[in-house]
Design brief:
3 helices, 41% helix, alpha+beta, two-stranded antiparallel sheet
Length: 128
């Protein structure tokens, strides 16, 4: 017996990927897969656009650089996104914090010591 792909070429009705809504419809299944691919590509494009907008907002909102509570380097960027949202992100070790004020964002980063947080793993705040 050959490979599975060869089997499904000989017996397409046995391939579960050729069914749509419980009915054998290879062309319909192909259209569904193409539509899912287009949706996935559109979703990825939107996610990238949102990430770029967030990066631009951070660049506009940069306030200062402080000493990082974890690595001790002058690499903790502070951002004032809105009057009530501050963000701190270390450019060296990756620890981060957020809060309603500058001091709350620093305290949040200090409270995260040892938690292994790294903002670079999830650079956009809605994925943290």
């Amino acid at each position: 017996m050959g490979e599975w792909s060869e089997y499904f070429e000989d017996f397409p009705e046995e391939n579960p990927g050729n069914y749509v809504g419980g009915k054998f419809d290879p062309e319909g299944a192909k259209r569904v897969r193409e539509a899912e691919g287009k949706r996935s590509a559109a979703s990825a494009e939107i996610t990238q656009m949102l990430a770029n907008a967030w990066k631009a907002e951070k660049e506009r909102s940069f306030v200062q650089v402080d000493e990082c509570p974890q690595c001790g380097l002058e690499a903790l960027n502070i951002y004032k996104i809105k009057d009530t949202f501050y963000l701190s992100e270390c450019q060296d070790c990756g620890i981060y914090g957020q809060g309603g004020s500058h001091s709350e964002a620093l305290k949040s980063a200090e409270d995260a010591l040892g938690d292994g947080l790294d903002w670079r793993d999830n650079p956009v705040p809605w994925s943290r």
